[in-house]
Design goal:
single chain
């Protein structure tokens, strides 16, 4: 058991360990998917239409997408469109975060936990860097730890990795 002084000396480490436990970022014993498979699943998810996955979370999604697509900028139809948009709507990023969290919470989710976790942190990263909004209550050390986890994944494509890198730089 740690004494009080030891806990006070390493609060970031304790927070990071708590976060790892809470988010279960160490998938070690449950590895069901290889890096090539995770890369393919991520590519598929990023190309998936937002309406298919987010529509059940927000009945007004079609209207929001229509409004977003009538504004200046490239159209937003897929997760990749949203995450790489120069001015993504924050409410769609928050909805993506909710979707990813729900996928992590349900064992019957069609998404591997690793993909849902990356999607969760991508929505936070993009809101922070592209919108100047923080859509998480995580403190910077905990968020940094989570972004670092994502950056270590060998199956991330470079444009997606860059989104996490940008957020990491923003909180440093």
């Amino acid at each position: 058991m740690k004494d009080q002084n030891e806990q006070e000396d390493h609060p970031q480490e304790d927070n990071a360990q708590s976060l790892t436990y809470m988010m279960d970022l160490d998938f070690g014993s449950r590895e069901l998917w290889g890096p090539d498979e995770l890369e393919a699943v991520l590519a598929h998810q990023l190309s998936a239409p937002l309406e298919c996955d987010l529509g059940h979370l927000d009945k007004g999604l079609a209207g929001r997408l229509e409004a977003a697509n009538s504004a200046d900028g490239p159209p937003i139809r897929t997760f990749a469109d949203l995450l790489h948009h120069p001015r993504p709507p924050v409410e769609l990023l928050e909805l993506t975060k909710r979707f990813a969290k729900a996928c992590r919470s349900h064992r019957q989710s069609p998404l591997p936990d690793e993909i849902a976790t990356v999607l969760y942190f991508l929505s936070i990263a993009v809101a922070l860097t592209q919108c100047g909004r923080r859509i998480t209550k995580m403190d910077d050390p905990s968020l940094g730890y989570s972004l670092d986890w994502g950056l270590k994944q060998p199956w991330l494509d470079e444009p997606t990795r860059e989104l996490l890198r940008n957020a990491r730089r923003a909180i440093d």
